[in-house]
Amino acid sequence: MIPDNEVESNSGHKDSNQQRSCTEVTCSYLFGAVCLGWAGIVVYGLLSGNLSQLQYPRNSTGELCGYGNLAHRPKLLYLDITRCAGISPAKGACPTPQICIEECPGTYWSLAQGGSSGLELFCKLGANLTTGISQLVVERTCPAYLVPSRSVQGRCVPALGLAESKIAAIKTEDGGDITADRLSEGREHVIMSVENDGLFAYLPDYWWIALLCFLFTLVLTLVWTVLAKIFTKPVLMTTFVLCPVVCVALSVSCMARFVLLKMGSNANQVDSFITNMSSYWYNMYTWLGLGIISGVPTLFIVLFFIFSSKHIRTSIDITEEAMQAFHSPKLILIFSLIIFLVQVLLILLLVTVACLLSTTGSPEYRVVQACQSETCKNNKTEKMFEQNDICEPSSFTDCTGCPKAQCVFHQFNPSTLGYFLQVVNLVAIIWLLYFVNSLGCLMIATVFGDCYGGNRRAEDLSKNGIMISFRTSCRYHLGTAACAPLKQVSCCLGDTLGYVFTALYGD
Fold this sequence. Notes:
By secondary structure, the protein is mainly alpha-helical. The protein contains 16 helices and eleven strands. It has a three-stranded antiparallel β-sheet with strand order 10-7-11. It has a two-stranded antiparallel ribbon with strand order 1-2. It has a two-stranded antiparallel ribbon with strand order 3-4.
């Protein structure tokens, strides 16, 4: 507790803020430059990105299903998905045409049955069935067969548990047989191509999970704030103990899961068709990444508690004194809610900008069904085009000498600038999050200082303390809050290196 005589001796002094001016101008300018740079990244993402690419797949010509002229056809159908069997999406494209359709097929059909009502829904847009279904199959406008399918990120793949007797009666366009194993291998190709798109591709379907996490965090924050007001010292002591314990437990559990999956004989053989997102649960590299991501901050937290253990009790006493400055629980809740909402808004902006940047780049096309008699020359290799060579559809179609060779869409490649801007976007948002947190701490410190070092009472500050402390912090401490992350990192590294050199070389 601060002695009463000190409070009384300080109450007669003139408010020190009247003799101060703006400080840490350099840090303020640096922070302003970072904000302007991040704003430029946002503008670049809005102008160059397209969030529809995360929600809809592309057909063989590179057009987005469910977008533009194909707005009523959001699903992607592989005319013969068995041709995708055994092909790694990272190395080659599936050598079968892919077209946009309205809904995935829900029944069995084969070319031997002839034309039927509604078949035009599974053909290319504008297909004329009066030409004859056999001719349309040869022209690769319509599929030679259909099987019940379900959608995986907009891509139609054969459903599980298909009747083998019905599959055995189906033939491909070349008259080949179809087996359940070939359909399963083709399905795996599609699943792997979806996983290669990254986590951003799942946001349109799983955004509600992130929303629930934010709401849970909000409730937890408000509950913790109320408890900290009532039982300040016990809550803070419990937090100091649980924070490193939970972080270490999280890192260890992730690495243990990684080791368990790696040692298992079927670690990566689990059928990824279970659900789109749940396949990450069975992927050992998911847990390795989470272990590394959680391990780095855990290391800093543990080092911080080790090197600052002597000051924890003092900080708890000071915090307990500061909490007494807020006599209104409603004021504490409002203060915490404002900081939380601002940080949530920044995180949402981070995710939105990251999604936009991930869609900046150019589509990549590759040659499929190439032949030995190819007459079209690849200018990059100075040889004739071969299977899976990168190509340009506009020139390859008129150049190729193979009857079935095509230049089809393979994948979308983000630009190098996009990768760089992703890193800058992440750093800028982390900086802004630290800034908001530091500004909030300075606002609390301002209230604490005015109560115990100034001539105002806590009851007076509780009425409009937020606005008073906000104006004071922005006027006199904006640079301090802006450069707080740099100061914390430099101090932590300096203390760590100091302890290391002392341990190695002595005093």
